[in-house]
Amino acid sequence: MSKYALLFTGQGAQYPGMGKDLYEKYNLFKNIFDEASEHLKINLINICSDAQELSKTHNAQATIFTLSYAIYKLLAATCHSEPFLPTCHSELYPRGGESEESLPEDPSQAQGDSAE
Predict the structure, then answer these.
(1) pLDDT computed for residue 85 by the predictor
(2) pLDDT tens profile 62-108
(3) Dist. CA 30–CA 32, nearest whole Å
C-alpha cells in the first residue's frame, strides 16, 4: 500500500461555509463537529457560516482544527488507511513564517515549542 501525507492549512484559510457540504453529507464528519461543539459549548458549524464570528481567533482556531481532524478521519475511513504524517502548517512552522530551510530533515520530528 502506498504512503501519503496530509497537510492542513492554518488560520487565515477559513471562509464562511467551510465544511458545510461535508457536514450535511457524511455522518462521521457531522458527528465529529457535533462532539467538538458539545465539548467546547459552541456551535462550530454555525460559526463556520458566520464570517464575523469566524474571523475571531478563538473561533477560527477551533473550527479549523475540527475541520482538519474531521477531514483526516473521513479520508482515513474512505481510503481504509491512515496517513503516515498528518500535520498542519503550525507544526511545520511552529514560530510562524519560518523558511523551509528551518524545517527538520525528518518532518515527523517537527514539534512546536510551547515555551515560546
Answers:
(1) 53
(2) 999 999 999 888 888 887 666 655 555 454 444 444 444 444 455 44
(3) 5
Closest-CA residue to 7 (of 99, 57, 75, 62): 75
Give, in degrees to the nearest 5, the angle at Cα 48 between 14 and 40. 110
> Counting Cβ atoms within 10 Å, is residue 6 exposed (0-12), middle (13-18) or buried (19+)?
middle
Q: Where are the alpha helices (DSSP H) in the chain?
A: 20-25, 27-40, 44-47, 51-54, 57-79, 89-92
For the chain, how many structural domains are there in total? 1
Q: Give the structural domain span for 81.
A: 8-94
Rounded Cα distance, 107 and 104, in Å? 6
pTM given for the model: 0.67
Q: CA 74, 77, 78, 83 torsion: positive or negative?
A: positive
Q: What is the CATH number for 70?
A: 3.40.366.10
